[in-house]
Amino acid sequence: SMLLLWAFDAAGGIRPVGLTSAIAAFVAWVILPSVAPTLGIVFGVVALKRISKSSGQITGRGQAIAGLVTGTISLLLYTAMILPVFAGARENERRVQCLNNMKQIGDAIDVYAKEHDGNIPEKFEDLRGYVPNLDKLLICPSAKDHSRPNYQIALSGKKWESEETMDTAIVTEPLSNHRFGRWALYGDGHVSWVSD
User: Fold this and answer.
1) Taking burial as the number of CB atoms within 10 A of a residue's CB, which of 61, 138, 179, 181 is the most buried?
2) Whether 182 contacts 194, CB under 8 Å
């Protein structure tokens, strides 16, 4: 079986691509743009050394300095453009982990409710027997404070999967955990992203 990755095609759609195409795209979009400025800096340094050793026989010191400055500025600009992409990828990874936490909390609430006459627990501590890693699940990876639970039970004591709670957020997180929204666990067990 071939490993398939997804890429954007020229028409703006998404299509599967092979590993070779994915590696080629990575090299073309990430590696190559940094090669030219780096070469400009290296050649500028080499030219300055040759000019200084030539005792005035080789000229072009200004051009070598201009090449160094241009290469350095280009490399700095490229770095400034690429770093936010990596930061965004890290936040997306944290957001997915938070989603998984919410789903596992929802599974635990479902089992708890089945054993407690359909009631949603009063506090997360009530779920301790239903989830082995409860303390870890209650910490959103994007939260600034990891010393206490980052999620809240909004409708404790209400009935799980009832008319009253089907479309209502049962477990939520603070808006400060993520940029542009937060996850919410609803009374029917699904988790949705709620935008700011």
Assistant:
1) 138
2) yes
Provide the pLDDT for residue 95.
Answer: 87
> Given this model, what pLDDT does residue 84 score?
77
* Distances 168 to 111, 153, 157, 171 between C-alpha atoms, Å: 19, 11, 14, 9
Burial class (CB in 10 A: 0-12, 13-18, 19+), 138: buried
- Neighbouring residues of 142: CB distance < 8 A, sequence distance ≥ 6: 91, 94, 95, 98, 177, 178
pLDDT of residue 58: 77
Tell me the C-alpha distance between 168 and 184, whole Å: 9
Q: Would you state the pLDDT for residue 7?
A: 46
| Span 9-27, average pLDDT | 58
- pLDDT reading at 195 higher than 90: no
Write out the DSSP string of 51-104. HHHTTTSS--HHHHHHHHHHHHHHHHHHHHHHHHHHHHHHHHHHHHHHHHHHHH
- Copy the structure tokens of residue 11: 């028409």
- With a cut of 80, say whether residue 16 has pLDDT above it: no
Tell me how many degrees the CA angle 93-99-105 measures, rounded to the nearest 5.
Answer: 140
Token pair listed for 171:
């477990």
